Amino acid sequence: MAATSGVSFVLSSILTVILFSGMQMYKWWLTSSQLHTVFGGYIGSLLFVFLLTALSNLEATVFGKSFQSKLFPEVFVALVVSLIASGMVHRVATTTCFLFSLIGLYYLNRISQETYSMPVISTSIHSKKRK
Which residue spans traverse the membrane (predicted)? Predict the structure, then answer.
């Protein structure tokens, strides 16, 4: 069963706050090794996905179901906030967050296209020429 835009906004907002606070609380662990730092960037990309979901669902609730997220400002704002959150952990986490976020954005766009796009029906008129 799918959640409504309002419920999804609340859930993704809660998950965003939990991820951000978890990154700050366990900053010492995320900077303890190189692998943990890359994992911190991955957590930052999850923060990006949840923040973008929260922003999109808020706009869908306020402006209606037909409203779509755009590259600027929704995606850009979510990406900048997640990069800043990852930068508060480690500089390398910022870079890996950017890369993982781009991969996540690609798959979000792909899933959205498969779910919400309407099939294009092409009609062509063939005329028969007689000699």
Answer: 6-23, 35-55, 75-108
Cα separation values, 27 from 21, 43, 84, Å: 10, 12, 14
Q: Whole domain around residue 67: which residue ranges?
A: 5-116
Long-range contacts of 67-76 (CB under 8 A, 24+ apart): 75/105
Q: Total domain count for the chain?
A: 1
User: What would the pLDDT profile of 53-103 be if each residue is shown by its tens digit?
Assistant: 999 999 999 998 888 888 899 999 999 999 999 999 999 999 999 999 999
* Segment 38-64, tens digit of pLDDT: 999 999 999 999 999 999 999 999 998
**Domain assignment present for 130:** no
* CA 29 – CA 116 distance, rounded (Å): 40
Q: Which residue has the tokens 């979901």?
A: 53
Q: Residue 111: inside a domain, yes or no?
A: yes
Among candidates 52, 58, 56, 99, which has minimal Cα distance to 78? Answer: 52
Reported pTM: 0.88
